[in-house]
């Protein structure tokens, strides 16, 4: 089947807010974050097209990406990332065995080799998978509702991975997974979480630190260096 990328880009970027609007349009090394992200995907020849999900009424993505081959901007953004992706998937008109690769607009530093490794690993796999990084730091759980948080427990970092995107699954499996979590009233924060709700076990493919999700204002400083 074909390989379609979906880029959720309908967030408001509250944690990165600097008063200039959603983070995905802020320039990094002179080019809007979203444009870096879309270019990283288009550099992979096995990706047939890129669908960018933006908030209804948002004209910025369409302006930035006007005339770019293999790219379509859809005004199908929803209240959560999950809604934005589910709406784009429904609008994409895919066959069940087509592949979908979901990648955050907020991860403009995706290296070509990590993207290629994910696709290589998923294409022959019955489930699909995601980029992720083994947890390097010792992990603490804090107590609930404390003004000054204190450690309640130390978790073993063994076998723990931090999920990144892209996350790649067959369109049929992903639609079924989304229907399942919707019926349960859940809103998973990534595609793998929905697929896991079906009892399937996504592949973990080693990602890259450069693929960090630009979330806080200081993340722009690091990303300027990587992309500059
Ligand atoms: N996203 C989306 N639709 C939403 C919320 C988020 O398409 N309703 C997208 C964002 O644009 C981003 C990706 O999902 O590319 C990951 O989300 P995140 O980094 O949390 O971005 P924001 O939600 O914009 O940031 P914040 O949570 O700080 O407000
Ligand atoms: Mg968010």
Helix and strand topology:
Blueprint: E1 3-8, E2 27-28, E3 31-32, H1 33-42, E4 49-53, H2 60-64, E5 71-74, H3 81-92, E6 99-102, H4 112-122, E7 128-134, E8 139-142, E9 151-155, E10 161-170, H5 171-183, H6 191-196, E11 203-206, H7 217-227
Parallel strand pairs: 1-4, 1-6, 4-5, 7-11
Antiparallel strand pairs: 2-3, 6-10, 7-10, 8-9
Bound molecules: cytidine-5'-triphosphate (CTP) and magnesium ion (MG).
Characterization of the model:
This protein is an alpha/beta fold and 228 residues long. The chain contains 7 helices and 11 strands. The chain has one domain: Alpha-Beta Complex (Spore Coat Polysaccharide Biosynthesis Protein SpsA, Chain A). The chain has helices spanning 33-42, 60-64, 81-92, 112-122, 171-183, 191-196, 217-227; strands spanning 3-8, 27-28, 31-32, 49-53, 71-74, 99-102, 128-134, 139-142, 151-155, 161-170, 203-206. The strands form 3 sheets. A 7-stranded mixed beta sheet has the order 5-4-1-6-10-7-11, sandwiched between helices. The chain has a two-stranded antiparallel sheet with strand order 2-3. α2 links the parallel β4 and β5. The longest helix has 13 residues, at 171-183. It starts with a strand and ends with a helix. The model has no long low-confidence stretch (mean pLDDT 97). Cytidine-5'-triphosphate is lined by residues 8-16, 24, 53, 77-81, 84, 104-106, 213, 215.
């Amino acid at each position: 089947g074909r390989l379609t990328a979906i880029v959720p880009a309908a967030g408001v970027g509250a944690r990165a807010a600097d008063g200039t609007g959603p983070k995905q349009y802020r320039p990094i090394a002179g080019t809007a974050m979203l444009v870096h992200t879309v270019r990283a995907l288009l550099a992979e020849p096995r990706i047939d097209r890129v669908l960018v999900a933006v908030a209804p009424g948002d004209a910025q993505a369409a302006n930035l990406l006007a005339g770019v081959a293999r790219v379509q901007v859809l005004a199908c953004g929803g209240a959560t990332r999950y809604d934005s992706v589910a709406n784009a998937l429904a609008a994409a008109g895919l066959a069940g065995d087509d592949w979908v690769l979901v990648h955050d607009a907020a991860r403009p530093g995706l290296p070509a080799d990590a993207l290629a490794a994910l696709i290589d690993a998923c294409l022959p796999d019955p489930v699909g998978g995601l980029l992720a990084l083994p947890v390097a730091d010792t992990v603490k759980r804090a107590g609930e509702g404390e003004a000054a948080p204190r450690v309640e427990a130390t978790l073993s970092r063994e076998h723990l991975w931090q999920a990144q995107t892209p996350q790649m699954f067959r369109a049929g499996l992903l639609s079924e997974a989304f229907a399942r979590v919707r019926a349960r009233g859940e809103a998973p924060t990534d595609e793998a979480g929905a697929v896991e709700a079906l009892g399937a076990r996504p592949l973990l493919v080693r990602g890259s630190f450069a693929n960090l999700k630009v979330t806080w204002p200081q993340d722009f400083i690091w990303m300027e260096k990587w992309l500059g």
